[in-house]
Write a structure and sequence with these properties.
Helix content: under 10%
Shape: globular
Radius of gyration: 19 Å
Largest sheet: 7 strands, antiparallel
Distance between the termini: 13 Å
Number of strands: 14
Strand content: over 45%
């Protein structure tokens, strides 16, 4: 899918480069009808290599809803976060956004201490009235469409080894892949908890496989690994 990075306008709280513990998140700000969806704490890679590694995590509204607002909580001011939005006009729910959003986080600092973020969605009912007629413009080239599709699987973690696999369909080819480890904890995961989980990703043909190992420190903690494949060439 040809997409555009859409940032500050819909991630207002993140523009301040940090979550404010005493304040509320703003994913429903200005929306008269809104359902809040909070994701888990997503671990951000802390390697200081160039280019910096990033983490992607997809969060979805309930069926029948579309994203109207986004926000996030950060454990470190040096986390750069944005999401992928579709090209189109006007920049609006249902045009720029759909039912799901892919958040992208990168650590930009120099002294990481278990950086993570928790994504939030403000969801609107997808049914609604339209606007008046819009003049048709003759295209000189192709209009941006949706040439890719994301295949995503989220698997619960447990102590020991967990495998998660996702694959493109037979008529598709793999464009890129991602994986993310995330914790459903009331507060941000500690560095010790983050380090108790290790994940490795391998790609073979159209298939993406992630092996995750968790120590006993994970016992009693609800956590997941999400593996994604961006696929192209389908019908």
């Amino acid at each position: 899918m040809k997409r555009l990075f859409v940032v500050a306008a819909l991630l207002a709280a993140v523009a301040g480069l940090g979550a404010t513990p005493a304040g509320a998140t703003n994913e429903c700000r200005g929306l008269p009808v809104c359902v809040r969806v909070a994701g888990p704490w997503v671990v951000v890679p802390s390697a200081l290599a160039t280019p910096r590694p990033r983490v992607d995590f997809q969060l979805s509204c309930p069926r029948g809803y579309v994203i109207g607002g986004l926000d996030a909580e950060l454990t470190d001011r040096a986390i750069d976060i944005d999401f992928l939005g579709k090209l189109g006009s006007p920049v609006n729910p249902g045009v720029t956004t759909a039912r799901s959003a892919l958040f992208r986080g990168t650590y930009t600092g120099t002294a990481p201490r278990g950086p993570s973020f928790r994504p939030h969605l403000g969801c609107l009912p997808s049914a609604g009235g339209g606007s008046g007629p819009v003049p048709r413009r003759i295209l000189a080239a192709f209009q941006p469409g949706e040439p890719t599709i994301s295949r995503v699987r989220t698997v619960p973690l447990r102590t020991g080894l967990v495998r998660a696999v996702v694959a493109c369909a037979g008529s598709e080819h793999l464009i890129s892949a991602w994986h993310a480890v995330a914790f459903y904890t009331a507060s941000a995961p500690t560095q010790a908890l983050i380090q108790s989980v290790s994940a490795t990703r391998t790609v073979q043909g159209r298939r993406v496989r992630v092996n995750v190992r968790a120590t006993a420190a994970m016992q009693g903690i609800r956590a997941v690994v999400q593996v994604g494949a961006v696929c192209g060439g389908g019908s």
